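> call design_seq(struct)
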């Protein structure tokens, strides 16, 4: 009898084990549609991504920080997942867009949204390309890290959708679509491209970061930020990679090619970034690079005892184009020029400075040159260059310090002359703080001969994502007699 009881218990345990082993944990916990089931929401209950964004904008215009969708509003949005947390570069969020490609109409433009969810491993259920519906009743729309976000929340900020409720809110269909990224150059990205999948061609890692990993350098605290640049325009954008990603220690390919990822903003909402789902999204498979010519004599250990010229722009008129004997203020594209500027705000000028601002220009492109007087390096063989730079919300616009040994001094020949980069000179970066001024260092010019011009070149536009402000001051060339 005792032996029979043990046999019965063993049979029961074995049966339970067999039942449990036949049920996948994900399938057991999350009710998913079968292959034959096609979930759909009535058309009269579906709203558009544009309507969601406009509702948020309307709330902001009314003085609110978020927009609420009331519990009795039986409305949904329909979208496709373009993010994946499988490799750890996205965390507790879904990025969705309303189209599978970049087809665009005035009635329904291609747009994206972030959905904030307090759940990990979302890609196990909502993988890349999965079509989903978001039940909007009771949710809030706001801004998180600079991008439009859907979640829960109060009157102040968007908060995460919690684990106990997200399955009823994020409705998974059985459709997995092929997502075709929008092919775009970094200088043509706009706010409408945020939270959408983009592809940038003919890109490469900046030459000063060759050999770097995605996010395991000593300077990488939470994210690795690596500068990518366009071989077509020279425009740069930062690639952001989490230090928790599976591929953080992988070395970034050193050639050039295409990159596909989600266009977004950094954690502090200071600059544009692209975030990839995995290393397979970076296809820098061409061994050829497009690095500029450089003049790199390094930094001098001392400053010359005599001064060839010094310019602090104090004589210039505020908000008027720079006009100085021997200097060239040239507009290559757009309507804006380098101008005199004075500010006492948190990012104060050094008295009066030279400024280039493309914000509110309305121009599709702004390119401006401010070029120094000629320097005869055969006469002043020990010449050094120093200057200071600052920016205010650079927004992916950029300033370069260039040199030419063959420019004849006429505006007509500026763009046809040979210009290289003074690589030893430090110029304020997009990721630098906008408050302080940055010293260039004492740039040695002694390894060049002949006559040289130094140019401070701004590249930007009137677009919100490319309309930064740069300031320049205290430009001086010294030498030893």
């Amino acid at each position: 009898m005792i032996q029979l009881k043990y046999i019965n218990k063993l049979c029961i345990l074995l049966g339970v084990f067999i039942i449990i082993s036949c049920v996948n944990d994900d399938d057991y916990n999350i009710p998913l549609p079968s292959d034959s089931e096609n979930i759909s929401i009535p058309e009269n209950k579906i709203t558009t991504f544009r309507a969601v964004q406009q509702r948020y904008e309307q709330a902001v215009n009314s003085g609110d920080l978020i927009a609420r969708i009331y519990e009795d509003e039986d409305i949904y949005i329909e979208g496709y997942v373009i993010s994946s947390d499988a490799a750890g570069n996205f965390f507790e969020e879904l990025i969705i867009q309303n189209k599978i490609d970049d087809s665009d109409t005035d009635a329904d433009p291609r747009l994206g949204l972030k959905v904030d969810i307090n759940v990990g491993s979302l890609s196990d259920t909502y993988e890349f390309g999965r079509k989903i519906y978001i039940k909007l009743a009771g949710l809030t729309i706001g801004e998180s890290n600079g991008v439009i976000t859907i979640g829960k929340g109060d009157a102040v900020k968007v908060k995460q959708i919690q684990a106990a409720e997200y399955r009823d809110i994020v409705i998974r269909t059985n459709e997995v679509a092929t997502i075709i990224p929008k092919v775009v150059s970094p200088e043509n990205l706009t706010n409408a491209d945020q939270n959408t999948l983009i592809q940038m061609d003919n890109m490469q890692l900046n030459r000063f970061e060759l050999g770097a990993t995605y996010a395991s350098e000593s300077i990488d605290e939470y994210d690795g930020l690596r500068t990518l640049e366009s071989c077509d325009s020279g425009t740069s954008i930062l690639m952001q990679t989490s230090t928790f990603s599976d591929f953080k220690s992988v070395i970034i390919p050193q050639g050039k090619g295409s990159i596909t990822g989600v266009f977004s903003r950094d954690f502090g909402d200071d600059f544009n970034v692209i975030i990839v789902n995995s290393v397979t999204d970076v296809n820098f498979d061409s061994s050829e690079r497009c690095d500029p010519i450089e003049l790199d004599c390094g930094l001098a250990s001392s400053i010359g005892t005599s001064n060839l010229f010094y310019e602090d722009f104090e004589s210039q008129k505020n908000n008027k184009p720079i006009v100085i004997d021997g200097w060239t203020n040239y507009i290559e594209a757009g309507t804006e020029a380098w101008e005199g500027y004075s500010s006492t705000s948190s990012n104060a000028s050094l008295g009066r400075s030279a400024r280039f601002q493309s914000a509110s220009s309305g121009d599709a492109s702004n390119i401006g040159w401010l070029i120094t007087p000629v320097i005869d390096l055969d006469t002043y063989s020990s010449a050094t260059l120093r200057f200071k730079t600052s920016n205010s919300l650079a927004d992916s616009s950029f300033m370069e310090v260039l040199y030419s040994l063959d420019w004849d001094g006429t505006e007509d020949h500026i763009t046809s002359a040979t210009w290289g980069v003074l690589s030893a000179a430090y110029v304020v970066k997009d990721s630098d703080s906008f408050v302080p001024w940055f010293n260039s260092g004492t740039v040695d010019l002694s390894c060049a001969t002949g006559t040289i011009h130094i140019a401070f070149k701004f590249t930007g536009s009137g677009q919100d994502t490319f309309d930064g402000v740069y300031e320049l001051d205290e430009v001086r060339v010294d030498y030893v007699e």
